[in-house]
Amino acid sequence: MSEKQAVYKKSLIKHLYFNGKLSCAELSSLTDKSLPHTARALNELVEEGVVYESGHANSKGGRRPQVYTVNPDIFYVVSVAMDQFISHISILNMSNQIVAKVERIELDLHSNPHALQELGRHLHQFILNSHIPREKFAGIGIGMPGFVDGQKGINYSFLSTNNNSISQYIESVTGLPVLIDNDSSLIALAEWKLGAARQQQNAMVVNIGWGIGLGMILNGGLFRGQNGFAGEFSHIPLFTNNKICNCGKMGCLETETSLQVMAEKAIKGLKEGRTSVLKDLPLGHLEETSKLIMEAGAKGDKYAVELLSQAAYHIGRGIAILIHILNPGLIVLSGRGALAGRLWLAPVQQALNEHCIPKIAENIEIMISPLGFYAERLGAAALVMEHFDEVRMHRKKKELLLS
Predict the structure, then answer these.
(1) Which residue(s) pair with 89 in the sheet?
(2) 285 Ramachandran zone, left/alpha/beta (phi>0; psi -120 to 50)
(3) I need a labelling partner for 247 at 20 to 30 A (CA). Which of 28, 131, 378, 391 fits?
């Protein structure tokens, strides 16, 4: 088989991964190849057990076309979803189903100078323990906070390698191709390809977590900016509160809205005597504390609802700025914070009512992500599959950039 034909067959697998079921004609159109060429490649994939026939598409008349689906267990992706404190490692099949126990690692990116080496060791052992042959892995996708240059495989904020490539280091440890990107960009990728923003031309995906990230879908594509750093929504200077942000500046959006700030406010308020079902919130365990606050809010606890509403209103103020500049059709609230569900919606809408020109905001839809906390995990897998047909070229390009 020629290299060109092998790459084309991978592109068919990629399209089936993202779309679930497609006919030969649809695949021909998506790949801009002739029907006979596409049919020949599909028949080969069926014979190889990579793709199977899965019924017939709906038809308005005439013979219904055969549709195809990728075999869910023909390839697997190692998905790594990182935040500043916790990392989760998963193995997903081609139907995005988890096929091995998720590993949770406490990895403080701020204070651990050996975080990258620890991650590499965990990944190496995790892959060995899966007992899945290496040739069955499409690759490793890693989402992480910070200023990430995915093309060079470098994170300028965390996991320092003295300007060497994080991707190359993990590849050397695991023997698998590795792709990295900013966590909020991957959450937006997941929403665009698999979630609430599917097939949207212009949408903003807000990642509510330890910061307030942003992924932007503009003109039918993921917008990353000049160096891949677009979407630092957390650091727009919205307040004159003299609070120092993690970035070193003062008054950033995240100083009043992040889940970390919410947890700190909750602990302080309870010490001051605020009435709430929340009791003895675990100090030093932000993940558990924020989860308890959101769960209490969902059950109607007044203090928890107040904390969430305050944060949501200020996030809405930030979104109002985005609306005036970018005029999106959809705002998706995603990430860890989506656990609070509809509690975000009314305060965000109130902020838009107060701060947006009505004509600009009148047709904007705001919704809670159906993917929620799992969006980054899916985005990391989607990153690998987005480049499935060009992994070799991608690796050569990175080598040239780093040379």
Answers:
(1) 80, 103
(2) beta
(3) 378
Terminal alpha carbon distance of the chain: 31
Task: Tell me which residue has tokens 């904390």.
Answer: 307
Which residues face 66 on adjacent strands? 56
> Which residue, 119, 109, 20, is CA-closest to 71?
20
> Judging by beta carbons within 10 Å of its beta carbon (0-12, 13-18, 19+), is residue 359 exposed, middle or buried?
exposed
Residues 6+ apart with CB under 8 A from 168: 153, 178, 398, 402
Which of the four pLDDT bands, split at 50, 70 and 90, describes residue 391? Answer: low
Q: Which two tokens stand for residue 8?
A: 């084309």
R_g (Cα) of the chain, nearest Å: 22
User: Residues in the chain, how many?
Assistant: 403
DSSP string of 40-84, one letter each residue: HHHHHHHHTTSEEEEEE---SSSSPPEEEEE-TTS-EEEEEEE-S
- In the block, tokens 């904007």 appear at 364
- Looking at residue 129, its pLDDT comes to 96
Q: Which two tokens stand for residue 374?
A: 């799992």
Contact between 64 and 53 (Cβ < 8 Å): no
pLDDT at 398 exceeding the cut of 60:
no
Structure-token match 């060791």, residue found = 121
* Contact predicate 188/205, CB 8 Å: yes
